[in-house]
Amino acid sequence: MREDDLVYLGHNFSKLDIAENLTVSLVHPTDGIARNFNNKIRDIIDRNAARRADLMFIGHYHKLAMLKHQGVYGYVVPSFQRQTSFMADNNLESVVGGMIITVNFNELGDISSVATEVIEF
Length: 121
Prior knowledge:
Elements: E1 13-19, E2 22-27, H1 37-47, E3 55-58, E4 65-69, E5 72-76, H2 85-89, E6 97-105, E7 111-120
Parallel strand pairs: 2-3, 3-5
Antiparallel strand pairs: 1-2, 4-5, 6-7
């Protein structure tokens, strides 16, 4: 509320129209993640039809995973927080870093490729 240049997108979820044929979902679940990160992405896509987008970025878990499922490019995104004592006590790692996502479109305006660059810190 104090910053003029920040826009509040919603609590734990937002869906954005980035381009004419590109939607992005930002999801911040409140549960834990299983050992198989790809299954978590699939579950979130399967159980949240209204939240699906072309690209779905899932935070909260401090991990890194990516896959395409049901036409959705799903990502569990890394964080900018190193392993906390809570995480260490529970044998949880924290992937610290970011990603650059490049989306290319064909002449019809459909997604033709998605390139993911991971930058680890």
